[in-house]
């Protein structure tokens, strides 16, 4: 009998051991189950696949929150490309943006990403994406249903040709001509705003902004590189606005950031465009750049520059001849019958082409040839460029539904961002009248740029945001501050001759951020942003920054000119740090600026 209690105790000890074992097993089982649940709930990595456009690139899609502060708003797809690093010592990723806004970052990457990878040293994967509303993004700003339909709306209006400026725009008669054109522009802006409100909807458009894009970049970085990864960025033109938003909204995540051809984000976000305060700043070097290229044309001579003549005594001879041609067109436009799309050339069309030409030195000889042939009576090539309607045989484009390519629709994509960022008007603020806008334009013409002051105003449909259904709708936009302390000092770059983002704009951006946050790289080169060929001096600064994280001492570096005459030594291969090739630029019915690229 006495043995029984002992066996019972042993059984109890045995039961206890089993229970402990079961408990431990339960904990382990729960751990592994939870791990599996967590694994299942975690976002899968992007399913990268070779891009059909170029197998060296990988293409993928990532769903991001429509509203980063409201999960109930659902998700939208962000289309991406990745160009892998070439060096074994991988240093992460570099985000790029094509400027504009308006074009597809995915499409642009096949042209520009290799140059950017080379410029940054080859140690980073280059990541490009279609910004909300642009390219393949859904929803898309396809308000008119097709590119052809918007082209028909846009064609032969001031949207396409920009203002025809009278010989004396400051006279009562001259001002009246401009006012009439501005009234047409306002009517077009109101009409397209109403169409977009009906077909796309203000709610969808309200989620398209630079602020939202920054949070999209942060989410892509988190998925690819981890929660705490610093964000590297390389861009120009409007991309400099995105860059300033990025580093000031996420100062603790600022990695190596290069922005070239700068637009002050504070003015972009907080000043009504129609005041032309921003435009006056951005056009500060337009006439200087125009004169520089005409000097280059004169020195190159007729063999290399079509606008030059053997009888010219200096660059002023060329300038006078072009001005006389513009004046003649103001009196009588040039009829063009020998074209697949007949039409006529206006003075505004010539100003537009000149202004685009001096932004893109690689393609300057081609543009000047268009103008020279028009001056001799054959305007077919110039008209084709102004209309931006390319036949399918053109290797630079692909056909639309009727066999032609229409690029004007990208203006609507641009408006989704620029007007999405724009400062809304209060109920007490009346939108400007045509007369008030023209008076502001005349101030720009008088004080800053006689030739292009009224041209740039219409190239960018940045005005009229009070008609845009996405202005002031949706999540709050970031409006500053713009001088937050950054985790990494950034590199701000300017060219000595840039007709739309001058040195003074780059200086303002750097001063706003402070020398502790930004270094200003200034090179003696001509062209807008990264369209200008980089000097080796600048290339070395950029590469060392991205590879070693080192910037020169002090607040500013200046690089001397290294290239010969722009017409004699046209850069066929894009230089280190190039953003876009000319064929992409030619496809754009807008400048590659913030105002415009």
TrEMBL record:
Transmembrane segments: 14-32
Xref: Pfam families: Abhydrolase_4
Coiled coil: none
MF terms (GO), sorted A to Z: hydrolase activity
All residue ranges annotated as the Peptidase S33 tripeptidyl aminopeptidase-like C-terminal domain in the record: 456-557
Organism: Mycena chlorophos
The keyword Transmembrane helix appears for this protein: yes
Keywords (A to Z) from UniProt: Hydrolase, Membrane, Transmembrane, Transmembrane helix
Keyword DNA repair listed: no
InterPro entries found in the cross-reference section: AB_hydrolase_fold, Pept_S33_TAP-like_C
Protein name, entry field: Abhydrolase-4 domain-containing protein
Domain of life: Eukaryota
